[in-house]
Design brief:
With about 160 residues, the chain is mainly β. The chain is built from 3 helices and 10 strands. The protein has a 7-stranded mixed β-sheet. Strands 1-2-5 form a 3-stranded antiparallel β-sheet, with no helix packed on it.
Length: about 160
């Protein structure tokens, strides 16, 4: 990544956006608290050094005596894990999650048993050919694009559909 390339990210609806100067350590946490906070099998996180909120800031939930978690109050996207002032962002909230690779995992004792074999589950490149293909054929995404935008309003997109 070049020095001039911005590291950006945000929530699904675009209400909360951020820039990061550089990455710290990238990890995956399998603890039950992270599983529930992310609504997933684990929490992929990367320390965001020099984080700057460029469009609104997240709301926070104090999930333990030492950790608060930031999320978008509009769409619910999990955005941050703040351990006593050290802030990590969810790797999935980055505009380009391929920029980082986790280097270690925490709480392997609570890892969901099938995570290691998930690549063996049948998969499709897109919905094409999947049993649910018809269900997705006329779906319109309201997700914020994976790059900074000057103006973004999900409401404007939704009104176009009517």
């Amino acid at each position: 990544m070049s020095a001039s390339q911005k590291i950006t990210g945000g929530c699904q609806c675009g209400a909360v956006r951020y820039e990061i100067k550089e990455f710290g350590r990238a990890t995956i946490c399998h603890c039950r608290m992270c599983q529930k906070a992310f609504g997933g099998l684990y929490a992929p996180l990367v320390t965001g050094l020099g984080i700057n909120w460029v469009h609104r800031e997240p709301k926070y939930f104090q999930s333990s005596s030492k950790v608060q978690r930031g999320f978008c109050e509009e769409c619910g996207t999990p955005l941050t894990y703040d351990f006593e002032g050290t802030v990590a962002v969810s790797i999935g909230s980055l505009d380009n999650p391929e920029l980082v690779t986790p280097i270690l995992q925490f709480s392997a004792d609570t890892r969901v048993s099938y995570v290691d074999d998930i690549s063996k589950v049948p998969h499709y490149v897109s919905a094409k050919g999947a049993p649910e293909e018809d269900m997705f054929s006329d779906m319109i995404s309201y997700q914020h694009p994976d790059h900074p935008t000057e103006n973004w309003s999900v409401d404007k997109l939704k009104n176009k559909d009517k």
